[in-house]
UniProtKB/TrEMBL annotation, chain A:
Domain ABC transporter: start-end pairs: 5-246
Protein name per the record: ABC transporter ATP-binding protein
GO molecular function: ATP binding; ATP hydrolysis activity
Family: Belongs to the ABC transporter superfamily.
SUPFAM superfamilies: P-loop containing nucleoside triphosphate hydrolases
Pfam families on file: ABC_tran
Taxonomy, superkingdom: Bacteria
Keyword Ribonucleoprotein: no
Organism annotation: candidate division WWE3 bacterium RIFCSPHIGHO2_01_FULL_35_17
Nucleotide-binding as UniProt keyword: yes
Length: 257, 223
């Protein structure tokens, strides 16, 4: 089966910068895979995700998602991805449901209607089902300004999954969440992955979240310095039976030296 | 494809209308603005200069303020994309599978709806203070108002493409807006301008129209 994400010799250099933020990286992600891109701050993780989700233009190299070129066929790519950004991208002037409705209409899932009661029954059912699953059923008609950080994250996940994306990009999705909310979010995401075969592309600083990944790529100073399953990443290190965090720190240290 | 883009344009436009209706201060300012300019400036100019010259300054300023209210509201609305960018909401817009032009058209259309709320305030106030308007004249105000909104939106895009923060918008907006007000003759008849200002007016008008005229191609080349 061809990979769902294919990156070849990807380079990104920002204007007025003398170094590459992403420096000639190549990797691929299989369909339905849980893939984690790890690296310290400023390593190029968000830049890579931004290129793959079409919000940033690459300097050179190739990247394809679901077989579509991310620049020449950006519309096709956008139709097939969901993104949970590092910073919540919700409209604070709207209610939670209005944010979801706005998203669903932008993606052409349902014809836009100015009020909830005029939306189709299938939309209403889907919203209630997702809100119930994420534990925000009672608050779905409340304004976003009344939401806690955890509730906003859950809402973003509901919104990001409304159009059944083939690939879900999660850019540090649990930053700022308490342990209970983090567990809740991950249980739901893993459930979605199992049921829908959604590919999950994760960047995170919580390395325990990447322990169950199928493949991990470690990036440092824009370069891909390690790639493999968690077990492959851990072996060939001097430490005996390292945790993923220990292995990660060792790999970064070796690369910096 | 086209239906999807139209659906997206309506969605983006309606969001702006919801935001306006939830912003009481903005709705209120839509009514205070005509009160200040038509009620105070217009009536005093009419009483001091207009009556001596046999010129109805009240009607003159009313039509100018009507167009200005629509122009300013739609320009400010399009520029509010800066706010969306700072709040990270623009990310949601830019990863959606719609044309970038649909985003701008939706924004202009939405702010046109918002601007008509301000225009309605001007119209009501005009009636209250007795500006003489026939039904035909009111009917003509609708397409004229649409043109003002469209140009305001184009002007907003010009400003938006050159600034990156709300703070800069707050500092710069009056400086780019006031020349528009005076050079378009909102409060003053367009006669007796110095050569320099005549040239400036012509250049600004051309610049805004050139942006506005690139918009229709969006309908034919959506992506």
């Amino acid at each position: 089966m061809p990979p769902i994400i294919e990156v070849k010799n990807l380079v990104k250099r920002y204007r007025k910068s003398k170094i590459n933020a992403v420096d000639d990286i190549s990797f691929s992600v299989g369909e339905g895979e849980f893939f984690a891109l790890l690296g310290p701050n400023g390593a190029g993780k968000t830049t890579t995700i931004s290129i793959l989700n079409t919000t940033l233009i690459k300097t050179s190299g190739q990247a394809r998602l679901c077989g579509f070129d991310i620049e020449k066929q950006a519309g096709e790519v956008r139709q097939r991805i969901g993104v949970i950004f590092q910073n919540p991208s919700l409209d604070r002037n709207l209610t939670a449901e209005e944010n979801v409705r706005f998203h669903a209409s932008l993606y052409g899932l349902y014809p836009f209607r100015p009020i909830f009661s005029l939306m189709s029954n299938s939309y209403k059912e889907k919203v209630f089902e997702l809100a119930e699953l994420m534990g925000i059923r009672q608050e779905i008609f409340q304004p976003i300004i009344t939401f806690s950080g955890g509730m906003k994250r859950k809402l973003e996940i509901i919104r990001g999954l409304m159009h059944n994306p083939r690939v879900l990009f999660l850019d540090e999705p649990t930053t700022g969440l308490d342990p209970a909310s983090r567990r809740n979010v991950w249980e739901y995401l893993q459930n979605v992955r199992r049921k829908e075969s959604t590919t999950i592309f994760l960047t995170t600083h919580y390395l325990e979240e990447a322990e169950s990944a199928d493949h991990i790529a470690i990036i440092n100073k824009g370069k891909l310095i390690s790639y493999g399953t968690p077990e492959e990443i851990k072996k060939d290190l001097k430490i005996q039976t390292p945790t993923l965090e220990e292995a990660y720190l060792e790999i970064i240290k070796n690369h910096d030296n | 494809m086209i239906t999807k883009e139209i659906n997206a344009i309506f969605t983006i436009a309606f969001r702006d209308l919801i935001k306006l209706l939830r912003d009481r201060a903005r709705v209120l300012s839509g009514f205070v603005f005509p009160f200040l300019f038509i009620g105070i400036l217009g009536s005093s100019l009419n009483a001091t200069i207009g009556e001596n010259l046999g010129f109805n300054f009240l009607t003159f300023i009313f039509t100018g303020v009507f167009a200005q209210a629509l122009f300013q509201s739609s320009a400010a609305g399009v520029i509010s994309l800066v706010q969306d960018r700072e709040n990270d909401f623009s990310q949601e817009l830019f990863i959606s599978p719609i044309s970038r032009y649909s985003i701008i058209l939706g924004k202009i259309f939405g702010e046109t709806l918002v601007a008509y709320v301000a225009g309605f305030g001007v119209l009501i106030f005009g009636f209250i203070i007795g500006v003489p308007l026939t039904l035909t004249q009111i009917a003509f105000l609708i397409p004229a108002g649409l043109a003002a909104c469209f140009l305001g939106g184009a002007f907003g895009i010009l400003v938006l493409s050159n600034i990156s923060s709300q703070r800069t918008v707050a500092q710069i907006f009056p400086f780019v807006l006031f020349p528009q007000i005076f050079l378009s003759g909102v409060f003053n008849p367009l006669i007796g301008f110095l050569l320099f200002f005549r040239g400036l007016r012509r250049s600004l008008t051309r610049l805004i129209w050139s942006v506005a005229l690139t918009m229709p191609r969006v309908l034919f080349f959506p992506r």
